[in-house]
Amino acid sequence: MRSSGRWVPLVAVILLVGLLGTTALGAEPIKVGLHAPLTGFAAADGLSVRQSVELAVKQVNDAGGINGRPIQLVVYDDRADAKEAVAVAYKLIEQDKVVAVVGGSYSAPMRAVAPIYQQAGIPMVAGFAVHPDITRAGDFVFRCGMLGPIEGAAAGEVAGNVLKAKTACQMTMDNDFGRALAEGFRKRAGELGFKILWESLYPLGEQDFTPYITKLKQLNPDVVFTSGYYNEAAQFCKQAKDLGLKAQILGEEGFDSPKFIEIAGKASEGVIIVTNLNRDDTRPVAKAFIEDYRRLYKMEPDMVGASNFDALLVIADALRRAGSTDPRAIRDAIAATKDLQGATGVIRRFNKLGESTKPIQVQIVKDGRFRYFAEVGDPAIITPPEK
């Protein structure tokens, strides 16, 4: 892959995870690609994605693979960077000849590569990237996580109807992710009639939230809805506690990481988030994912991992039903998915845009772990658009 006449640097790691089942099954493996941010600011999320998808591959291969053939996972590090992701996409398509791809990275890189996979006719299932434009790349692109404006609307529902807030402020990360969430929260606040007193953007990588928190203390809202990844989220919560902010902090899926609780420490207690994984889910698939993840990796699972675990299950289910490794047949089978049990919920179907519909989970940090707080299931909120 070239850019401006020079080779684009590619930081790549190939993990032949299919070897977990290849020898036992003794048949030609089926190559499936995975993007994940294994290094850089999002490395903790990348680790969770990689381990969760490896776990899904192991479960599939241990159960006999795809009609006797094992899945071989080919993983590259995109560093949550759009340029790196583009180089990864071409490598997976042209060199590795994968038949499908798990899009296990953030919104900016997934937006960049979705049109590439669409043009190549290789199905991609995004795990947790939230930007609406990802699936709008075309009919080979799907998402089993939450659409950003819908997640934001669910946060608005929690603020207005669960927490009974009359006033709120928004602290928005200034990127695709944050702006998509803010859009949904703002719209739902207007529908429910609670007042947004102040909205502020802050940059990715911000470490000093003192000026923002000082302003929030002056305004004294009932709820502060803030977007951010685990490091920014932890720093905001620590500084909010140190400076005596009384408002309820309401976060989103970016908070959903063991690193958030580790970094924020006691400041994480009582923080509420909207997310894609219920740790108290009693369904067998969810319980097995959570228990196996803890046993194998000696750490807590999170929504980024669970969402991409489900993306691999979507591809595996489609491969079985298609009875073929032809990408068009796989795409058609994904589009026909019905009532697939996943770690993050039951994927009833994908709509015409490739979006799934599931209840949105609301978790609270209690005694150092995320636990069930509520669920947003109103179809008017959680149903994605058809076009």
Largest sheet: 7 strands, mixed
Q: How are helices and strands ordered from N to C?
A: EEHEHEHEHEEHEHEHEHEHEHHHEEEEH
Instruction: Point out poorly predicted stretches.
Output: 1-24
Biggest sheet strand order reads 9-8-10-11-12-15-16
Helix fraction by DSSP (H/I, runs of at least 4): 40-55%
Distance between the termini: 32 Å
What is the radius of gyration computed over CA atoms, rounded to a whole number of angstroms? 20 Å
Q: Tell me the number of helical segments per DSSP (H or I, 4 or more residues long).
A: 13
* Percent in strands: 15-25%
Note the overall shape.
globular
Number of strands: 16
Q: Which structural class do you get from the secondary structure elements?
A: alpha/beta
Overall pLDDT metric: 93
Could you provide a short overview of the structure?
The chain has about 375 residues and is α/β, with parallel strands linked by helices.
Describe what you observe in this structure.
With 387 residues, this protein is an alpha/beta fold. It has helices spanning 19-25, 43-62, 82-95, 107-120, 148-162, 176-192, 210-219, 230-242, 258-264, 284-297, 303-322, 327-335, 379-382, and strands spanning 2-3, 6-7, 30-36, 71-77, 100-103, 124-126, 141-143, 167-173, 195-202, 223-226, 248-251, 272-275, 340-342, 345-347, 360-366, 369-376. The two termini are 32 Å apart.
